[in-house]
Amino acid sequence: MVYIILGTGFEEMEAICPCDILRRGGVEAKLAGIGGTQITGGNGITVQADCTVEEMDLEQMELIMLPGGMGGVHSILGSEPAMEAVRYAHEQGRLVSAICAAPTILAKLGITDGKQAVVYPGLEEQMGSARMQDANAVRDGRVLTGRAPGAAVDFGLMLLEALKGAETAAQVRAGLVYTH
Predict the structure, then answer these.
(1) Each residue of 163-179: pLDDT tens digit?
(2) What are the angstrom distances between the C-alpha of 102 and each of 4, 25, 43, 150, 169?
(3) pLDDT tens digits, residue range 71-102?
(4) Exposure of 57 by Cβ count < 10 A (0-12 exposed, 13-18 middle, 19+ buried)?
(5) Are 37 and 48 a contacting pair, CB within 8 Å?
(6) Distance between CA atoms of 140 and 63, rounded to whole angstroms?
(7) Which residues contact 180 (CB under 8 A, 6 or more apart)?
(8) CB 160 within 8 A of CB 144
(9) How far is residue 16's CA from residue 3's CA, in Å, rounded to a whole number?
(10) Which residues are catalytic?
């Protein structure tokens, strides 16, 4: 199970695109809302989440994903259940992922310390001791990060490969006719 955390002001592309890619690849991915199941993103698109963060089954979680968007990042930081889910995923050896501004949440929790990572340009100083890379998406062990909305497809494919392997990711990539 993958849980994608949605807080008010989340970046829509960074949540929906990876969710779609994961589902195309046969992964059970759920959108988990902070404060309810009707969550409005930073560009005014309201999304129906599958569950609330309080309803997540952490024991079944293989990967947690945090989309960016400054409002969404502030929502996650202000939600103890969301933060506890991220801590739990990390402590239990699950995959932990974030894109755009959300890797700064991982940095605040020490999850990216010493790891290769990417973050939205200009936020590098908030990444602590992470080793910043010049890429759309980077995996360092159990930590997966993406740069920005424009990297949402690359990030989603990286998540899918981490969960289902390179062959499945290549099949989905081909089906999307994604040539980047």
Answers:
(1) 999 999 999 999 999 98
(2) 12, 24, 17, 15, 23
(3) 999 999 999 999 999 999 999 999 999 999 99
(4) exposed
(5) yes
(6) 14
(7) 153, 154
(8) no
(9) 12
(10) 100
Mean pLDDT of 17-36: 98
pLDDT band with cut points at 50, 70 and 90 for residue 157: very high
Residues 119, 104 contacting (CB under 8 angstroms): yes
For 134, other C-beta atoms within 10 Å of its C-beta total: 7
Mind spelling out the 3-state secondary structure of the chain?
A: CEEEEECCCCCHHHHHHHHHHHHHCCCCEEEEECCCCEEECCCCCEEECCEEHHHCCHHHCCEEEECCCHHHHHHHHCCHHHHHHHHHHHHCCCEEEEECCCHHHHHHCCCCCCCEECCCCCCHHHCCCCEECCCCEEEECCEEEECCHHHHHHHHHHHHHHHHCHHHHHHHHHHHCCCC
For residue 180, the model assigns a pLDDT of 79
Instruction: Round to whole Å and give the CA distance between 6 and 177.
Output: 28
Q: In terms of residues, how long is the chain?
A: 180
> Could you tell me the sign of the dihedral formed by the alpha carbons of 152, 57, 73, 36, in that order?
positive
